[in-house]
């Protein structure tokens, strides 16, 4: 029975050693790569902000153009046209 316990203890020790190595690798990667990743995220955020601003500007421009078109159509429909033919007698 003692050999089974020794085998289990040995495997657990190997597992602990592997976890410690993995922890060192992750800690090293975090120290080196985090600064670069943060810089990349900041650049991406700046670009997204710029794209968002352009998008909102385009939407506002489109909205203004549509409003102007609707106002022009309403103005055109209200104003009498000179070439309109009616059956009423001419004023003299």
From TrEMBL:
Residues 12-47 form a coiled coil. Residues 76-85 have a biased composition (Basic and acidic residues). InterPro entries: DASH_Dad3. It holds the Pfam family DASH_Dad3. GO terms for biological process: attachment of spindle microtubules to kinetochore. Keywords: Coiled coil. GO terms for cellular component: DASH complex; mitotic spindle. It comes from the Eukaryota. Residues 65-92 are annotated as: Disordered. This is DASH complex subunit DAD4.
């Amino acid at each position: 029975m003692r050999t089974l316990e020794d085998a289990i203890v040995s495997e657990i020790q190997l597992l602990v050693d592997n976890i410690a190595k993995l922890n060192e690798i992750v800690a090293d990667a975090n120290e080196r790569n985090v600064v670069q990743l943060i810089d990349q995220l900041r650049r991406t955020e700046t670009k997204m902000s710029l794209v968002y601003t352009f998008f909102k500007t385009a939407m506002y421009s489109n909205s203004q153009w549509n409003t102007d078109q609707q106002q022009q159509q309403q103005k055109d429909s209200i104003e009498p046209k000179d070439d309109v033919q009616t059956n009423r007698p001419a004023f003299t």
